[in-house]
Amino acid sequence: MIPITRVKRIFLFATTSVFLALVSWTSGSSTSLIEQDAKLGIISPDEATIYKALAIVRPAALPTKYQGVTAVPGKCATDEVREAMKVILSDSDRYKSYKEVLSRPVTQEVCQSGQGHFWLHYDITGSNAVPLIDNNNNDIPDFVERGAIIADSCWRYEVLNLGHLPPPSDGAVGGGVDKYDIYFENVGVYGYTQAELPGPNAWNDYSSHIVVHNNFAGFPPNQDPEGDALGALKVTIAHEFYHAVQFAYDVGEDIYFMEESSTWMEDMVCPEVNDNYNYLPYFYTIPQVGLEETGNHEYAAFIWPKFLHERFGPKIMRDIWTECRFNSAIGAWYHVLDTLGGSLEDEFVRFLIWNYHTGDRATPGTFASGADYPQVHVMRYSETVPDLDRNSIEPPEPFASNYIVINNYSGMRGILTFDFTGLVTATWGLGYIVDYGSGRYADFIQTAFQGTNAKIYIPHFENVLRVIFIPGVTSSYGSGYNYSYHVYWKLPGDFNNDGSIDISDAVAGLHYIFSGGPPPQPREAMDANCDGNNDISDVTYLIGFIFSHGPAPCR
To answer: Which residue range is the domain that position 32 belongs to?
Structure first.
């Protein structure tokens, strides 16, 4: 192993970034004031974009009006900086000073990681100083040494184990030939990854560098046994280095997927930390918000890559990012799942089902850590049937859903029917879960229904504690999509599903038994005598009811 070595900082060549990849952060009133002034026309939209990035990473460079506001530490500033640089580079003369402000930091010290892949740049005095504890007396702060060890482990896992492309080389920029640069700085987020120069390939790859917080004081708690600060350092390097890897495929990919997958990578490299659990309520409390949403939701949505990984193995993310070179994120999901013999529609509905099985509803075969996740928000509970003419009160966005629970606390009997009609402009999928109580569940996926209409039948409802219906949108476009549904009893003996019991049902039964006619939906509807079979005795039983005042079809 190459020892971690300390190099005295003499001069650092400062570069500018062309694109940066940043994730939304939890801003304070400084950002609110910037947005307010932009709406009032006091500043331009372009100035607002630059100022919002500066408020996170270089607040001292802001106009005085926007300075001096304490903000809650945010997660990642990759997107904000990227958008700011787009504006700056669109008019380099006008925004020259901001371009210089957003250049690489100049630091006092630098050290090399043990495996030689990284240079870590840091200060030992001033506002950007790292914690100076040096228990092994090698003149490198322990905090920086741990950063180097974490960075090497990220390289091993993300590049060597999963087979991802390494970040494109920045040459000698930063002071080390073909070494990736990580800077410690007192910024308003955990960190960010800043793209700089086009890479060597035919696709949209870029070199980059990473900035991480210099001490993580005051950041949200996590579960790392070594303490919150080291936990935050671990997940930040894992998160940001995966952004650097993403830039090897497509620096301009949709930020929501960059953040979802980078937050997933935290779990892969540092499973003991669980800092990403801080964001899960932003997903589970609003399931009607889609996977393309940004802000804190995109960090919480790491469970989508987590689902794909647990279903197909972690290398599926490498395959998706490989496809992202020439495709959108959603297009890559479609393509890769198709090559694996599945479909995005089916897997998304299965994902919705898994999201119900969390907390004390966790079950084998769903999320391995589902017991630690929050429980998903239920849009509506019902304990009476029929329940008719209902609409969504929280219309789901693309790649989002609602949860509807029909409880059976009173022992209702019969064939429960869920009759769904969705807007024709959306592609729909339906999942449903039959809860028999005592932790016994049966999960079902129905995505290939005709048009936008579907009926789901739950026979022998008397044996069921509750049913959870999960309508989801599997379209990648549009906003919230409404739908209607009815919950009612299917008439026993209604063989042909026309809503009434008459001789046409007996004819339908004979046609099914002797001529290969369509089967009853569900099969229990034809079991008029409740002997568990569909045969001529059911037709005879039904004819007796219709013409001879015999007993009614049983439930």
So the answer is: 27-71
Give 380's strand partners.
404
Measured in degrees and rounded to the nearest 5, phi and psi for residue 461 equal -60, -20
Judge whether 12 lies within some domain.
Answer: no
Residue 210 is classified by DSSP as: E
Using DSSP, state whether 205 is helix, strand or coil: coil
Closest by Cα among 342, 137, 153 to 242: 153
**210 and 117 belong to one structural domain:** yes
Most distant CA atoms of the chain, gap in Å: 103
My answer on whether 158 and 230 are in the same domain is yes
Query: CA triplet 273, 278, 282: central angle to 5 degrees?
Result: 145
For residue 364, is it within any domain? no
Burial class of residue 209 in the structure, from the number of CB atoms within 10 Å of its CB (0-12 exposed, 13-18 middle, 19+ buried): buried
pLDDT digits 0-9 by tens, 479-531: 889 999 999 998 777 788 777 878 887 787 788 878 888 887 887 777 777 77
Which amino acid, 439? G
Q: Say how far apart CA 398 and CA 288 lie, in whole Å.
A: 9
Q: Which two tokens stand for residue 427?
A: 């592609």
Name the token pair of 352: 């919705």
Which among 274, 307, 328 is the end of a domain?
274
Nearest to 446 by CA among 540, 516, 306, 348: 348
**Half-sphere exposure (Cβ direction) of 484: Cα atoms closer than 13 Å:** 6
- What is d(CA 396, CA 426) in angstroms, rounded to the nearest whole number? 10
Over pLDDT 70: what percentage of the chain? 93
62 and 158 belong to one structural domain: no
Residues with Cβ within 8 Å of residue 430, at least 6 apart in sequence: 349, 420, 445, 446, 447, 449, 454, 456, 469, 470, 471, 472
Per-10-residue mean pLDDT of the chain, 555 residues long, equals 39 27 44 92 95 90 82 85 87 89 92 95 97 96 98 98 96 81 95 92 94 96 97 98 97 96 97 97 98 96 98 97 97 97 95 98 96 98 95 96 97 93 92 96 80 87 96 90 94 78 81 82 77 80 80 76
pLDDT, tens digit, for every residue of 398-436? 999 999 999 999 999 999 999 999 998 899 999 999 999
Using CA atoms, how far residue 88 sits from 31, 51, 93, 200, in Å, is 19, 11, 9, 24
Tell me whether residue 281 is exposed, middle or buried, using C-beta atoms within 10 angstroms of its C-beta: 0 to 12, 13 to 18, 19 or more.
middle
Q: Tell me the C-alpha distance between 440 and 388, whole Å.
A: 28
Q: Are residues 542 and 462 in the same domain?
A: no
Question: pLDDT over 90 for what percent of the chain?
Answer: 68
CA distance 271 to 24: 23
Same domain, 263 and 405: no
Considering the entire predicted model, what is its pTM? 0.89
Secondary element (H or E) of residue 489: strand 483-490
Q: What share of the chain is helix, strand, coil (3-state, %, to 5)?
A: 35, 20, 45
